[in-house]
Amino acid sequence: MDDRKCECGHTNPVGTMLCESCGKPLDSRQQLTAETAKEFPDMRYEGMARRSQTYSKTVIDKIWNFFSSVKIAIYLIIITLIASAVGTIFPQQQYIPVPVYTEPEIENFYTSTYGTLGKIYYLLGFHNLYSSWWFVTLLVMIGTSLVICSLDRIIPLYKALNKPRLNQHESFLKGQKIYGSMELQEDKHDLFPRAAEELKKKGYRIYQEGNSLMGEKARFSRWGPYVNHIGLIIFLLGVLLRNLPGFYMNEYVWVREGQTVAISGTPYYIKNEQYTTEYWKEDEMPEKLDLQGGVIPKSYQTDAVLYVNKNKSLPGAEPDLQEVARGPIVVNHPLEYEDLLVYQSGVQEMQLGALNFQLIDTKAGNTPVGSVKLDLFETKPEQQVADGIKVRVLDYYPDFFLDASGKPATKTNVPNNPMFALEITSDKEPVKEKLVYLRGSIITEKQDQRYTLQIVKPDLIDISGLLVRKDKAMPIIYFGAFIVILGLVMGFYWQHRRIWLQRNGDTLHLAAHTNKNWFGIRKEVDHLVEKLELVMLIEQKKK
Amino acid sequence: MDVIQLSDWLLNIAFLLYVFSTIMFVLALTGKRWGKRSPQEHEERFGKIAYYIAVVGFLAQACYIVTRWIAAGRSPTSNMFEFMAFMDFCIILAYLVIYRIYRLTVLGAFVIPLGIIMLAYAYVFPQEVTPLIPSLQSYWLKIHVTTAALGEGILAVGFAAGLMYLVRTINQERRSKSTTWLEIVLAVVLMLIGFIVMDTSFAHSNQKTVFELPTQAQNNMGQMVNQQVVYTMPAIVAPKDAKLIQAGPMQPLFEAPGWMQGKDAARKLNTMIWSILSGLILYGVLRLLLRKRIGAALQPSLSNVDPELIDEISYRAIAIGYPVFTLGALVFAMIWASEAWGRFWGWDPKETWALIVWLFYSAYLHLRLSRGWVGTKSAWMSVIGFVIILITLVVVNLVIVGLHSYAGV
Ligand code: HEM
């Protein structure tokens, strides 16, 4: 006998488990009685044929079946979960507390801080786990699985849900988890209208055909998981999109007070007019705290100006800056201009900005002649100190050290350890003297120089760290997240419920099905039985 | 009395009421053969009393939140104490809602004690009203933290019901893998209690041990000095290469391994050891008193409960909590991270663990729906899920330090 042809005469597609027309289980081996009803096919897809259950010959079928399997999905989720946890055992490279710039330095950090385990962690690449090829592959596989499992099920489910299951085969009704039946003694004409009335009160929609009645509610909730999976797909797409050029830009700039810097890769410049850190004052705190002399920061703020360079498209032209936005940037409140966002992200406070000196004339009783300012960032090659007296900068090393061959050099461009070689000239008398500033002291070339420098308080400045970001994928990511939540709410806060009443001759069958919350539907069934004054024992099958 | 004091008192009152409520629940379940009433009537009556006491406790705690909010001028969800207290509030809230649906008395006998433990754990942290540091100054703080805590609170009810299912159904006649694991879960609960008891009792005794570390840090005056660590609990384990400068009640027995980094690592290890020890002692005492497995001792009190109903309650709680958790701990967190740090996701340990919790419950839902994992398997999953939440709250906050860590113990 052809399995696909049901006794009701309907021919079903290959793979169908419950006849599309009458709901009778189709597997000929399974002659369902009330006793074997436990083996009643799963109602999840309403017994509809799914591609993955039907074909398994070609490679494409095999791949399709692999990705549409929920078992595989669960494995993927669990592997991702474990991998994510492994990534938190030691800090990821981006969270290393000390600055590291080169691979050996990174390796050294993990080895010296965490010993052998740290070394293994580093060698396995777990210090950059979340951007590793295999972790990204896992996410892509979850995405693929989401797409394929949705395609595999959406159409069968749509077909099944769109056609109310009325006039079902007895074995369909008996196979339901909640089921009861009774013999109708007298002819109760008003039974179905009253049932319809009661069910409507509970929010059910009524379908009726001859001797069969079905109340259904919240069918849409069956779409919840699909909506949420589509949301996840959109979300993951958004995340992938950020890897395309133009979608995502992320620049970190350090800007000194008063400085204007170009934001690379954009026509924008940003100026730090002033940086301030505020601390909570004692009278502002709701409760007196013992901070042991410490302080709690209240705000980090950069007053910034954003400019656009009008001459960006003219190669070699001087920048022509035009102000486009201005305002304070504080944590949690970035500066916005079109799709550009500038965040307050870090600060280096009280950094050396300029060294200050008094020029002393030793021949004139150590009298001060004038003041010298050596800016550590924009050093003037020469400055006039007093009438006819000039100071020239011969050499400047911001981060001074002696290299392997013993020559002076600079480690970085950051003035951590500034060293100046200076020359002082005077017009009046032919004086040309040299001296060196290093680590807070002055070294003169000759013993009895006429001019020397006396160190006075340096200029301290704040350097503000600003994060400049452009993320065109953000709306997609948020939209995906919104769809996820929408799907979850649909799927979990409503449940698809159906209650069937069917009369076959003198027998009245009552069956109920829901995808979730059996407790809830059971209460409604009991309520119905009570209102209709049915003498019926409702059985609820155990799983 | 000022407002802060008032709010502290309200929380203490809530705590006491939860304790009374638990006592009533225990009486409801154990005292069935007293007096003239039928066992069912007895359980119903005492269950009702217990429920209403819990409601009053809940109201007191709600007033605590309102008064503390007024006093602080910001939402009371900004440090570890406030967060744990708020999460406790959410557990009770979730319980009250689930109780209204299912009307199952014994549920309270498991959930309310869980709430008490969470609240007691909150008291371990400094209780002062601290002003907000810049990164917390955002209305997303309240939105994100409250929703995430609510989600975790509802999932906690799923855990309590799952645990009930295991206590009810595991065969206690013979020792088996299941009975052993159940005892382990119960012992872990006792360790948490042990930690709370140890911490509160030593916090007020003046038995401090002070070590000087070999590492240096800048003090308030800008000078480099050797760091010091103060233990409130007696020192079993000393920091590596540290000098004892003030002896406590006992000599340290050994040094922490060298790979345990950070100023406070050894002290945290010491606290952990004490918690485990005290939990095990509590467990041993209980075993001696009961003369059987704790699971076996608890089982009779649940004999009237339909296991399928508890299974459904556990699942329902998780089904309700999962979307809330997704919204609060992931979506709102992303929006806030995007505003505060300029990135919606950064694989910070706290963020990663929220993702882990979420993935775990996703696996739970798929297993339950598609592979028919109901009953025992599902109950174990709900227990493991809550253990992961606890890891997120306790271990990640205290041991792994990230951007999110509030001030720790
Ligand atoms: C991180 C990724 C995933 C999340 C968060 C997720 C979430 C969910 C949720 C919340 C449900 C509803 C469960 C319930 O109603 O109890 C669900 C159902 C489902 N998920 Fe996923 N899922 C994910 C990945 C996948 C993947 C990769 C597949 C591919 C096979 C899949 C297949 C299914 C199926 C078949 C259902 C049942 C749908 C139905 O009721 O008709 N899920 N998922």
List the helices and strands and how they pair.
The complex is a heterodimer of chains A (543) and B (409).
Chain A: H1 51-54, H2 59-68, H3 70-86, H4 103-123, H5 133-162, H6 170-175, E1 178-183, H7 191-201, E2 205-209, E3 212-217, H8 224-241, E4 248-256, E5 260-262, E6 268-279, E7 297-309, E8 321-330, E9 335-337, E10 340-361, E11 367-375, E12 382-386, E13 389-397, E14 400-402, E15 408-410, E16 419-426, E17 431-438, E18 441-444, E19 451-471, H9 474-493, E20 497-504, E21 507-514, H10 518-531, E22 539-540
Antiparallel strand pairs in A: 1-21, 1-22, 2-3, 3-20, 4-19, 5-6, 6-7, 7-8, 9-10, 10-11, 10-19, 12-13, 13-16, 14-15, 16-17, 17-18, 20-21
Helix pairs in contact in A: 2-5, 3-5, 5-8, 8-9
Chain B: H1 3-30, H2 39-72, H3 80-102, H4 105-123, H5 139-169, H6 177-204, E1 209-218, E2 224-231, E3 237-238, E4 243-246, E5 254-255, H7 265-290, H8 294-298, H9 307-341, H10 349-370, H11 376-398
Parallel strand pairs in B: 3-5
Antiparallel strand pairs in B: 1-2, 1-4
The complex binds protoporphyrin IX containing FE (HEM).
Protoporphyrin IX containing FE (HEM) sits between chains A (44, 68, 70, 73, 77, 142, 145-146, 149, 153, 225, 228-229, 232, 488, 491) and B (362, 365-366, 369-370).
Would you write up a description of this structure?
Chain A is α+β, with helices and mostly antiparallel strands. Chain A contains 10 helices and 22 strands. In chain A, a hairpin with a 2-residue loop joins strand 12 and strand 13 (389-397). In chain A, helix 3 (70-86) runs antiparallel to helix 5, helix 5 (133-162) runs antiparallel to helix 8 and helix 8 runs antiparallel to helix 9 (474-493). Chain B starts with a helix and ends in an 11-residue tail after the last helix. Chain B has a 3-stranded antiparallel β-sheet, with no helix packed on it. The longest helix of chain B has 35 residues, at 307-341. Chain B has helices at residues 3-30, 39-72, 80-102, 105-123, 139-169, 177-204, 265-290, 294-298, 307-341, 349-370, 376-398; strands at 209-218, 224-231, 237-238, 243-246, 254-255. In chain B, helix 1 (3-30) packs antiparallel against helix 2, helix 2 (39-72) packs antiparallel against helix 3 and helix 2 runs parallel beside helix 4 (105-123). Chain B is mainly α. Classes of the chains: A alpha+beta (543), B mainly alpha (409). Chains A and B meet through helix 3, helix 4, strand 7, strand 10 and helix 9 of A and helix 9 and helix 10 of B. The structure holds protoporphyrin IX containing FE. Protoporphyrin IX containing FE sits between chains A (44, 68, 70, 73, 77, 142, 145-146, 149, 153, 225, 228-229, 232, 488, 491) and B (362, 365-366, 369-370).
